[in-house]
Amino acid sequence: MIQLAEWQWLVFALAAITGAFVIRSAFFVSVSLAATVVGGVIWYDPTVPVLFQLMMFGMLILVGVAVSQYVVKPPSEAELAAESAESEEQAADPVELIGRVCAVSTDIVNGFGEVLIDDKAWRVRGEDAVRGEQVEIIGIDGVDRALLIVEKAE
Questions:
Q1: The dihedral of CA 41, 44, 50, 52: what is its sign?
Q2: Which residue spans within 2-141 are E strands per DSSP?
Q3: Cα–Cα distance measured from residue 137 to residue 135, given in angstroms and rounded to the nearest whole number
Q4: CB atoms within 10 A of CB 19
Q5: Are 105 and 137 in the same domain?
């Protein structure tokens, strides 16, 4: 006969909460909470039959999903459209900015500062420069695509 120990339920809960963070799913949060509760019950009373453990686990998931329908509100269409447009703009703009010359809006100190391009502030990395000085965008940081690499314009 199969026996499920409390540590197995808690490991399953840890895996489910990891999945919830990766996938951003309220369902996995429900699974994680249900597995944690069942693991706690088994820790308290290890003689609970496996069939009862599985039934309790299933019922707790159903309760969690039902509760999450009232607690977790899906984003509105306007929010989704704004987020999509913002992410597309952020992803497309940096490449198009290479080669442009612009003025420093916040002093570049210790290699970091800001420039203002089309009413949008961009973080930059490059030689130290004072506000108003002209810099040319020569690249994009490979890790943080919102960080532009600049050098003083000639």
A1: negative
A2: 101-109, 112-117, 120-126, 134-140
A3: 7
A4: 16
A5: yes
CA dihedral 38, 44, 46, 51 (to 10 degrees): -30
Q: How far is CA 7 from CA 2, 14, 43, 76, 89, in A?
A: 15, 10, 8, 40, 47
What lies within 8 Å, CB to CB, of 33 at 6+ separation is: 13, 60, 64
Tokens linked to 63? 């309760």
- Same domain (yes/no): 67, 94: no
Domain containing 111: what range? 90-152
Q: Look at residue 116 and tell me whether its pLDDT is greater than 80.
A: yes
pLDDT digits (tens, 9 = 90+) for 7-31: 898 898 999 989 888 888 888 888 9
Q: Identity (one letter) of the amino acid at 23? A: I
pLDDT in tens, 39-71: 999 999 988 998 999 999 999 999 988 888 888
